[in-house]
Design brief:
- The protein is an alpha/beta fold and about 280 residues long.
- It has ten helices and twelve strands.
- The chain has helices at about 20-30, 50-60, 70-75, 85-90, 110-120, 135-150, 160-170, 235-240, 250-265, 270-280; strands spanning about 10-15, 35-45, 65, 80, 95, 100-105, 130-135, 155, 175-180, 195, 220-225, 245.
- It has a six-stranded mixed β-sheet with strand order 2-1-3-5-6-4. Strands 9-8-7-10-11-12 form a six-stranded parallel β-sheet, sandwiched between helices.
- Helix 1 packs across helix 9 (about 250-265), helix 5 packs across helix 6 and helix 5 packs across helix 9.
- It is globular, with a radius of gyration of 19 Å.
- The N and C termini lie far apart (about 40 Å).
- About 45% of the residues are buried.
- The model has no long low-confidence stretch (mean pLDDT about 95).
- The structure holds NADP nicotinamide-adenine-dinucleotide phosphate.
- NADP nicotinamide-adenine-dinucleotide phosphate binds next to helix 6 and helix 9.
- NADP nicotinamide-adenine-dinucleotide phosphate binds near residues 135, 136 and 159.
Length: about 280
């Protein structure tokens, strides 16, 4: 029998997982909203994903986030998928239903779009060409959510072009999503309203993204999904030439809103205090 005062547990499943800031933000909200619950790290090896996911319901866990490298594998274990997760082809959130069944969601795109709107409330997806670098898991959520926001011209460029072609096909909007070769990336910035880096280049421990911004209008917004460091070499270069920049922290914070609400029954707020609490751990 469900009990509204029951202690609720959730967490984030991945490998490695100690670097994830999700426990900081969910436990901040748990305290703030006086919820009886806790959120932790679930370090799970690839071979154990099925047992761990199936164990959620048996252990009475409310649900969990799923991060790399389990986002696609975990999706296949769901009893039901949200239409968006189905289109993205990966999940980042599981909600255990009262009957024990597992529902999979992908909230990355929601978090991403909200982070752009937080940075500029007048932001729109249809104001001009959007150049997206990368075609991995994060890019899939970004492309689908930009399409849903009304993007009309997406230039998708990945080091391995076949993966960009595959993503463009899955996006099922051939008039909007066009792919280009990796060595066309500098020229593709001509006339763009937005540049988005979804590769891991520029992340802590990785070399900077190799791109020349000369052709990019200074009116373009430049967004990087990376949040460690908060300002990647790409964002620093863009800021120095006058572009508005958005880092990946807002995406991380905002994708947590629907998950927290589904597990704990309260729609939480992303505030400056929360942002500072997470930043203090960097
Ligand atoms: P992924 O699936 O492993 O994709 C990695 C992407 O980076 C691929 O497109 C890959 O191209 C590209 N890449 C790797 N090395 C490269 C190089 N030397 N030159 C050019 N491109 C290279 O990873 P993901 O899950 O999509 O994550 C991508 C980034 O987004 C990571 O930095 C991650 O931290 C960030 N992210 C942030 C959030 C957030 O909440 N802010 C959420 C999810 C992800 P190939 O296909 O050619 O290998």
């Amino acid at each position: 029998m469900s009990d509204s005062n029951q202690f609720k547990l959730a967490g984030v499943m991945g490998m490695p997982i100690v670097q994830s800031r999700s426990p900081i933000l969910h436990n901040y909200w748990i305290q703030k909203y006086n919820i009886r619950g806790a959120y932790g790290h679930f370090p799970v090896q690839v071979d154990n994903v099925e047992a761990a996911v199936r164990g959620l319901s048996a252990l009475g866990i409310a649900g969990c986030n799923i991060t790399q490298p389990h986002k696609v594998m975990a999706m296949k274990l769901m009893d039901q998928l949200s239409p968006l997760a189905q289109r993205v082809g990966a999940i980042n959130c599981i909600v255990v239903q009262p009957d024990g069944s597992l529902h999979g969601f992908n909230n990355d795109g929601f978090g991403y779009i909200q982070s752009l709107k937080d940075a500029n409330p007048n932001w729109r997806a249809d104001t001009g060409p959007i150049v997206i670098l990368g075609a991995g898991g994060a890019a899939r959520a970004v492309v689908i959510s930009l399409l849903d926001e009304g993007a009309r011209d997406i230039r998708l460029i990945n080091r391995t072009r076949a993966k960009a072609d595959e993503l463009a096909l899955a996006a099922a909007a051939p008039a909007v999503v066009k792919t280009y070769a990796w060595d066309e990336r500098d020229a593709a910035l001509e006339g763009a309203a937005m540049l988005i880096n979804t590769t891991n280049q520029g992340m802590y421990g990785q070399p900077p993204l190799d791109i020349k911004l000369d052709a990019l209008p200074t009116s373009a917004m430049v967004s990087d999904l990376i949040y460690i460091p908060l300002e990647t070499p790409l964002l620093a270069a863009a800021r120095a030439r006058g572009n508005v920049t958005v880092n990946g922290l807002g995406m991380l914070l905002n994708q947590a809103i629907p998950a927290f609400e589904a597990w704990f029954g309260v729609k939480p707020e992303v505030t400056e205090e929360l942002r500072q609490a997470v930043l203090a751990t960097f």
